[in-house]
Amino acid sequence: MTQLSPLHLYLAAPRGFCAGVDRAIKIVEMALTKWGAPVYVRHEIVHNKFVVDTLKAQGAVFVEELDEVPDDRPVIFSAHGVPKSVPAAAEARQMIFVDATCPLVSKVHIEAERHHENGLQMIMIGHAGHPETIGTMGQLPQGEVLLVETVADVAHVSPRDPEKLAFITQTTLSVDDTVEIVAALKARFPAIIGPHKEDICYATTNRQAAVKAIAGKIDALLVIGAPNSSNSRRLVEVGRAAGCSYSQLVQRATDIDWRALDGIRAIGITAGASAPEVLVNEVLDAFRARFDTTVELVETAQENVEFKVPRILRAAE
Ligand code: 0JX
Ligand code: SF4
């Protein structure tokens, strides 16, 4: 038998599902129990193909727009949030709908509304076209939320009144990049009001901190997550910025480029907030099959956040 080469595998913690993802998936499962199939879901409930395929097999039907849902079937809005126009359209059609927007995203929506009521225009730090950005910007009338994606964008944004401004952020941004964008905003608009830190959530912050803790010890980092998962992609970038030049996103074990990992002695593994632990285990097993693997858990924080499902589903609990 050939001897397997030794590999030290640092497993980041926290990793994987956050409280908002847990809740969103539970909402779909409970809706299926309560109303039977099909239950429609507007947009991927969370950005993960495995999760979506599992729910599809149970009778969930995923669509991008509300127009694709028949009036007489329940519809769930994804964890990322929706513009105000979406529940309004569902109400107008007298549909049953359940909002699986993460409460930490809803908190940002409420923040934006409060500032708007106080006469402030908003600057949102986020990624153009991402459903959370679309949903958050869609809480206020057109033109009331201006988007900046980078420090460079700050120089070009033109608010109505620089004295009457507040900023909000997407929940899944890079903590370090956002600090720089906020600093640029404050330098250009000293009167701007913002949250204490930013709106980046606990799960995003903790997963990035765990990656930083292992980045200096490893030859390669694999982040389990989907290409359309913003928080997962940020983990890849955080790994790279922290000094691990081979930092890659993989959806599951079959995506791993084993040739690129030839000769490595230490690897880091983490998972985005929408990636299930079953895929982490699949990746660990793939390493165990190819290397004499020692797994070391690197835990930089403990999480005990839990969110209740909406009242309409609680009887099905
Ligand atoms: O693309 P995101 O990271 O915003 O979403 P994903 O991967 O579905 O993660 C969970 C939902 C996060 C909402 O804030
Ligand atoms: Fe909520 Fe944060 Fe998870 Fe997004 S990443 S669903 S904001 S807990």
**Mind describing the biggest β-sheet?**
5 strands, parallel
Count of separate structural domains? 3
Provide the helix percentage: 25-40%
Unreliable residue runs: none
Write down the secondary-structure element order.
Answer: EHEHEEHEHEHEHEHHEHEEHEH
Structural class: alpha/beta
- CATH topology tier name of the largest domain: Cobalt-precorrin-4 Transmethylase, domain 1
The CATH H-level superfamily of the largest domain is 4-hydroxy-3-methylbut-2-enyl diphosphate reductase, catalytic domain
Number of extended strands: 12
What is the end-to-end distance?
A: 52 Å
Rg calculated over all Cα atoms:
21 Å
Strand order, sheet with most strands: 10-9-11-1-12
Strand content: 15-25%
The bound ligands are:
(3E)-4-hydroxybut-3-en-1-yl trihydrogen diphosphate, iron/sulfur cluster
**Global shape:** flat
Number of helices: 11
The CATH top-level class label of the largest domain: Alpha Beta
Give the second-level CATH assignment, the architecture of the largest domain.
3-Layer(aba) Sandwich
Mean pLDDT across every amino acid position: 97
Gist of the model:
The chain has 317 residues and is an alpha/beta fold. The protein contains 11 helices and 12 strands.
List the helices and strands and how they pair.
Elements: E1 6-13, H1 19-35, E2 39-42, H2 49-57, E3 60-63, E4 75-77, H3 85-92, E5 97-99, H4 103-117, E6 121-125, H5 131-137, E7 145-148, H6 151-154, E8 165-169, H7 175-188, H8 202-215, E9 220-224, H9 230-241, E10 247-250, E11 266-271, H10 277-290, E12 292-299, H11 311-314
Parallel strand pairs: 1-11, 1-12, 2-3, 2-4, 4-5, 6-7, 6-8, 9-10, 9-11
Helix pairs in contact: 4-5, 8-9
Bound molecules: (3E)-4-hydroxybut-3-en-1-yl trihydrogen diphosphate and iron/sulfur cluster.
(3E)-4-hydroxybut-3-en-1-yl trihydrogen diphosphate binds at residues 20-21, 46-47, 79-80, 102, 105, 132, 171-172, 229-232, 272-274.
